[in-house]
Amino acid sequence: MTVLKINDVAKDFTLHAQDGTRLAVFDQLSFDLDASECMALSGPSGIGKSTLMRMIYGNFHCAQGEILIRHQDDWVDIVRAHPHRILDIRRHTLGYVSQFLRVLPRVPTMEIVTEPARAQGVGDAEATQRAKDLLTRLRVPERLWSLSPMTFSGGEQQRINLARCFAARYAVMLLDEPTASLDAENRATVIEIIAEARARGSAMIGIFHDQAARDALCTREIDMSIYAERAA
Amino acid sequence: MTDAYNFAYLDEQTKRMIRRAILKAVAIPGYQVPFAAREMPMPYGWGTGGVQVTAAVLGRDDVLKVIDQGSDDTTNAVSIRSFFVKTTGVATTDKTVDATVIQTRHRIPETPLTAGQILVYQVPIPEPLRFLEPRETETRRMHALEDYGLMHVKLYEDISKHGHIATTYAYPVKVNGRYVTDPSPTPKFDNPKMNNSPALQLFGAGREKRIYAIPPFTEVVSLDFEDHPFAVQTWDNDCALCGATDTFLDEIITDDRGSRMYVCSDSDYCQDRQAEGHQGDQSSSGSGAAA
Amino acid sequence: MNVSSSDTPLLKAVGVSKSFGGVLGCRNVDLDLFPGEVLGIVGESGSGKSTLLRCLSGEHEVEGGHVHYALRTGETADVHGMGPAQRRMLMRTDWAFVHQNPRDGLRMGVSAGGNVGERLMAIGDRHYGNIRNTAIDWLEKVEMSASRIDHMPETFSGGMQQRLQIARNLVTRPRLAFMDEPTGGLDVSVQARLLDLLRGLVADLGLACIIVTHDLAVARHLSHRLMVMRAGEVVEAGLTDQILDDPQHPYSQLLVSSILRA
User: Fold this and answer.
1) What is the mean pLDDT of residues C248-256?
2) How many structural domains comprise chain C?
3) Cβ–Cβ below 8 Å for A87 and C199
């Protein structure tokens, strides 16, 4: 079942403050993504991998093409949807695993991790159970769960971020180097967790600089430099 | 009576203007009607509003009683009474039951009023919301929209400060289920007398140029909280002169060694009771207070 | 932040325009606000943000367009067509208005408890004990000690006064809050605490908010969606993160690039 369709998408940045300089990133990009697929975006830095993921998430503006996502049995075009709809899609259908945890001061770890699941309507007990399982598997010590992650190490914050995103269940997930800055043990665990989500039917698009993770997880690969050339 | 003035001092056009304001006030119980108050030959604060209302309603056959703090013989009462004697020649009385028009400052007589009587109050500040909301534009809007939460805020503040509602005079009332109204600085002791009174109650504020009214047999409810209900003042003493147990008492210092007595503030009522043979614990001493 | 997925806007504005004696306030503004959603209005001073806010809340008459509000009853009310009594009723039950200067939103001569209790009394609460308990409850919600309940706002710091103003507004559990630079006059640490508090309350109460601010960090922290205003017009509107991370309009780009880090 197809869950995401990218149709003839292009991206450029216009820098109005710098004499309207136009930076073309990519052009004529199209692909479909099915449930349980995991697609790696490849190509050198600056080629537009993160940019594409952020466009799919609605975080970056898209001036040309369609980004269609299957949301609760409807096809919704992220490019043209009302922001209110996009927020709903982000809550229920589309997850984004960034490299960094956006830390809210004073909010305890446990609350941060359970929040997306609760927003999907998962009960407190179930959300807490999922959070405990994931935090335990990702080796975040239990004594930290009641504290704000504000002062935790980068690696701890990254694992909390992963626990947060995988405690909720999304049909489509965007993964921005999910295994970066992790040690070998945790890297293996994250690969397991992602594989489990795929087995449940989640479709993935990701940036994996870690070759082992890419080999373990990805079913497809798309070379972004092709589309960057079309824009040049 | 002197011919140097028109009857009741004011010219007829002015009296008509005031009567129109009074009619409007009667038609909208508790609503403050603006009127073009005149300069009167007495200072603001001495009852210029009440005097204008009295002048507008007084006829040649009326019998006038004037009281100040319940008493007929205090300065303010004496001077206003002589003002009307001079400018109208109407009969005056100390007896509540004989009066047709009673002008009052700070009290409602203890003797129940009857149908046909008019009670005219002298009012310094007619706006019950004034000390909470200084803007006249805003208080008018609050009245118009029946936005009276603020009035209860004042009572709330009282309880939070004193443990009970400490407002003892000018205690706000709701008239005819609509307008929150200031009963003028009468003690809250008198508030229940305003409710369903057979007499017409008129209020005049000269400096503030407002007239308002409570028509006969109109519901007047003192604001309160369910768990802090309205209650009138009570005294440990009875009236030292007439022995009354249910009147508003004044405390009178009788010497410089701290001796004091409590007597009815309504001197007419007190004398009537003494004439009927009622006695307080100091009445045999022949105190001058009853003279 | 919980946003209900309801498809009926709580507040809907179409073509709202307002000028003051020929001087433009705002022109042709459209917006939809959904239950539980936080909308930030950003732009420099004089761009018409506060004017728009006052047009939306009915405080200003509009010259063009209309604003509709979905009442609890399911009916829709024209904010500028309703009588002043109904608007005032909304203002003390269903709506909140938080001013930048707490002095504009508080009764400075009334204790903290009286300030919080006023709305309750305005809608007919007549039990002193209950009013007081609710006031204590709300003081605690905005992280103030219950022991301050009888103190005058004058004795509070600016941050506390602002929190008191928020408690006073939210005590009737409104569905829509208008906030005009709610963190404006506060120093940075106090501001951060207030933002967290607001964020929590908004989520807990499912409150929809329109927040006017010139501070993009505040906008990012609190709002789901943003409108960028310039010279009375909306030049760009959309998801907060999209506008801050990939602004399209030259003015939005200038605004975003002018700050150190949002």
Assistant:
1) 93
2) 1
3) no
Q: Average the pLDDT over C21-34 and give the result.
A: 93
C124 lies in some domain: yes
| B286 included as an active-site residue | no
Residue spans of chain B under pLDDT 70: 1-2, 283-291
C119 touches chain B (CB under 8 A): yes
Judge contact between B245 and B236, C-beta under 8 A: no
Q: Domain range spanning residue C165?
A: 107-173
| Token pair for A115 | 């929040």
Per-residue pLDDT at B281: 86
- Dihedral angle at the C-alpha atoms of B2, B3, B4, B6, nearest 10 degrees? 110
Q: What is the 3-state secondary structure (H, E, C) of chain C?
A: CCCCCCCCCCEEEEEEEEEECCEEEEEEEEEEECCCCEEEEECCCCCCHHHHHHHHCCCCCCCEEEEEEECCCCCEEECCCCCHHHHHHHHHCCEEEECCCHHHHCCCCCCHHHHHHHHHHHCCCCCHHHHHHHHHHHHHHCCCCHHHCCCCHHHCCHHHHHHHHHHHHHCCCCCEEEEECCCCCCCHHHHHHHHHHHHHHHHHHCCEEEEECCCHHHHHHHCCEEEEEECCEEEEEEEHHHHHHCCCCHHHHHHHHCCCCC
> Which structure tokens are listed for A90?
């982000």
Distance CA B223, CA A124 (A): 46
Our CA-based measurement puts residue B144 at a distance from the nearest CA of chain C, in whole angstroms, of: 8
**Does the annotation mark B177 as catalytic?**
no
Rounded distance, CA B215 to CA B118, Å?
10
Chain A residue at shortest CA distance from C203: A119
Q: How far is A184 from chain C (nearest CA, A)?
A: 33
Which chains does chain C touch, 3 or more C-beta pairs < 8 A? A, B
Residue B206 burial (C-beta neighbours within 10 Å; 0-12, 13-18, 19+):
buried
Q: Which residue of C has its CA nearest to B144?
A: C85
Give the C-alpha separation, C54 to C103, whole Å.
Answer: 18
Is C6 inside any structural domain? no
Written as one string, the DSSP assignment of B191-236 is: HHHHTT-SSEEEEEETTTTEEEEE-TT--EEE--BTTB-------S
- pLDDT for position A180: 86
Q: How far apart are alpha carbons B190 and B100 in whole angstroms?
A: 20
Structure confidence at residue B291 (pLDDT): 37
- Is C70 within a domain? no
Q: What is the pLDDT of residue C153?
A: 96
Mean pLDDT for the stretch of residues C233-241:
95
Residue C129 lies in a domain: yes
For A40-76, the pLDDT digits (tens) are: 999 999 899 999 999 999 999 998 999 999 999 999 9
